[in-house]
Amino acid sequence: MLVLANGAPVLAARLFGSHWSAPVDGDRLWRDGRPLLGSSKTWRGVVSGTLACGLFTLMTGMGLLFGLVFGLLGLIGDMISSFIKRRAGMASSARAIGLDQIPEALLPMLLAWLWLELSGLAVAGVIVLFTLSNILLSPLLYRLGIRHQPH
What residues form the membrane-spanning segments (predicted)? Predict the structure, then answer.
């Protein structure tokens, strides 16, 4: 589901182009003069990632609410990463190993830990696997034309 929350916004951007691409931060700047999040964090992405997870969990019997919250938390984690990267002066496309993966995996997995009563080891394992797979597979997805950045 982490991949779904992360991948649905990419697919939605390809399907809808510039439609519904209003940035979550409304193009606002922070006190440091840099974008709050950046233009790549859109409402289309938030809605598509959240709905994709909700529909998946509805179809698999885990319940709509769990999926909606899981997807939203993953996207909030991604926005936290973007916020931190902007404060550090990094561009939207800049690579930050760990920061690009861990918050978007940690927040929804904390929900899964509580909601599904997973073990802490299972949660940590999923976060590590998501981080490693994201780092290793992103260049391949870039070469296939699925991602706009090789990381």
Answer: 45-76
SS3 of the chain: the string is: CHHHHHHHHHHHHHHHCCCCCCECCCCCECCCCCECCCCCCEHHHHHHHHHHHHHHHHHCCCCHHHHHHHHHHHHHHHHHHHHHHHHCCCCCCCCCCCCCCHHHHHHHHHHHHHHCCCCHHHHHHHHHHHHHHHHHHHHHHHHCCCCCCCC
Q: What is the pLDDT of residues 82-127, one digit of tens each?
A: 999 999 999 877 889 999 999 999 999 999 999 999 999 999 999 9
Question: Residue 72, CB half-sphere, CA atoms under 13 Å: how many?
Answer: 9
Q: Which amino acid is located at 69 in the chain? A: V
Amino acid occupying residue 85: K
Q: What is the pTM of this model?
A: 0.91
In this predicted model, what pLDDT tens digit does every residue of 65-88 receive, in sequence order?
A: 999 999 999 999 999 999 999 999
The tokens for 83 are 């916020």
pLDDT value at residue 10: 87
Buried b (16+ CB within 10 A) or exposed e, 109-136: bebbbeeeebeeeebeebbeebbeebee
